[in-house]
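Ticket #4471: structure export looks truncated?
Reporter: QA, pipeline team
Priority: medium

Steps to reproduce: submit the single chain below to the structure queue and open the exported record.
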Amino acid sequence: MKKFNVLFAFCAAFLIFTVGCGREKPAEIVRQCPGKASVHHALDSLAGSADKLQSFLAYGEGRVTFYEEGKDEPRNEKIPTVKLWFAPPGNMRFWGDVAFNARGLDVGSNEREFWLAAKPKEIGNVYIWGEWAQQNSELGLLFSPKILLAALGVIDTDALWAFTPGKSSDILLLYDENGRVQRKVIIDNCDYHISGIDFYDNRGILAIKLELGDYRQIGEMVVPGEIKIISFNEDGNEETFEIKLKSVKPEDKIKAAVFERPDTKGFGEIHQIIGGRVIKLEQQ
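Actual output as written to the record:
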């Protein structure tokens, strides 16, 4: 399971660490601003922000923390360069420089497919992909680009959300047919940007936390400069990945080939996600 755990850490974990200076930290000042009056107003605001998203190309850096099999202490690795393309509504491509390979970590999606490819043996040499039409739920898709798309504000505003207003944050909750929570969206009332999204498994147990910050205005759209995903391994330990976007520029002429799923040739293991289940495929 070592390869799978390491791969999970790379595709579903972002965290920024802060270090104290040895003195007691002052109490955090929580801003209090009026939120929205209803779930409809909240969803309309999020949908309006998503509608303003435009194609862009972003550069930055990352850091990953994960546990290796048999080790008690986490491994912390810097990713010197990351590159992110986005074209609404759901075309996305992410490259992370891993083990001196600029495309060592390759995550992407288009209107038909999604994929995650980790080429260097240091992170598993594994390829996972699926077709959106073959999915009957979002369960099992925690490896998919939906996490990164959600970070950009691409969420299903047509779903039946429950709404809880707050003094500093409004909360949206999405439940399954059995009444178990599937997702929790936390919205900062002062700027009404999403500050966090919690993803739950089919038992209603927290599986992934997405945290967002350092929003910046690029033309009419707003993009988070800090993206953090925290996942939990089988032992309950946090495995994390951090992205800091240093440059975000509108890009109207992204070639269609950027959003095409890469070839599976050369990967040690190939898996396909069907109906939320990860199925290992035989090598061709």
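Status: closed, not a bug. The export was complete when the record was re-opened. Leaving a note from the reviewer for reference: The two ends are 23 Å apart (CA to CA).
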